[in-house]
Amino acid sequence: MLINFSDVTFIKSCPLIDDAPSPRLPEVAFFGRSNVGKSSLINSLCGKQIAFKSKKAGKTRLLNYFLVDKTFYLVDAPGFGFTLRGSELDQNFSSMMEGYLTHVDLKVVLVLADVRRGVKEDELSLLRLAKKKGIRSILVYTKADNAKQSELALALQEGQIAGADAVFLSNPNKHNISELRSLVAKALSNR
C-alpha cells in the first residue's frame, strides 16, 4: 500500500468512539504520556502542521481524527499519566480509552515513549491489549538523540519483550520518519 501522507485533512474531535466519523475506515492511533510528542509526530508524518501541539501537558482531551489519502484515519488520543486535571477527568479518560482499544476499526497502535525514561506499565498495558486484540503495535521512542547507549539498548529489549516493532526518533522532523511511514503502510496492507 502506497501512502501519501501529505493528503491529510482534520475531520473532527470526539469524546467517545460512538461519535467517530463516517465513513468507517481503518484507524492508526497514537498513544503516550502527556507531552511525549504525539501531535508533533503526526505533523512530521504528514509534513505539515495539522495537529495542535502545546508545551502544556494534557491539552488533548478528545480523540482527534485526521483523514489520510481518503483511505484511513490517524487518531491523536489524549495523553495519559497527567493527573493534575483531576480524578473525574482521569476516569473519563480511562473509560474512553477502554472503549477505543476494543474498537473494530483500530488496525495499528503507535505507542510513544521517551527513550530516556523507558516503557512504563501504562505503555506495556496498551501494548499487551493491542497484541491480545490482534492489533499491530509500533513502539516509537522519542528523544533518542539525548539518550545514552545503555538506554537505547534497554529500549530495544523492551520493544522485543512487548512484541512490537521499535522505531527511534532523534528529531521527529527528520530521523526515521520514512521508516515509520513504511511500518504503518505495511501494517495497514496486512489487515
How would you describe what is shown here?
- With 191 residues, the protein is α/β, with parallel strands linked by helices.
- It has a single domain, classed as 3-Layer(aba) Sandwich (Rossmann fold), CATH 3.40.50.
- It is built from 5 helices and 7 strands.
- It has helices at residues 38-46, 87-101, 121-132, 149-162, 177-189, and strands spanning 8-14, 27-32, 63-68, 72-76, 106-114, 136-142, 165-168.
- The protein has a 7-stranded mixed β-sheet, sandwiched between helices.
- Strand 3 and strand 4 form a beta hairpin.
- It is globular and about 45 Å long.
- The chain starts with 7 loop residues before the first strand and ends with a helix.
- The relative contact order is 0.18.
Keywords for this entry:
33% helix, alpha/beta, 23% strand, 191 residues, globular, Rossmann fold, 7-stranded mixed sheet, 5 helices
| Net shape | globular
CATH superfamily: P-loop containing nucleotide triphosphate hydrolases
Estimated structural class: alpha/beta
Number of helices: 5
Question: Approximately how much beta-strand content do the residues carry?
Answer: 15-25%
Q: What is the annotated CATH architecture? A: 3-Layer(aba) Sandwich
How many strand segments? 7
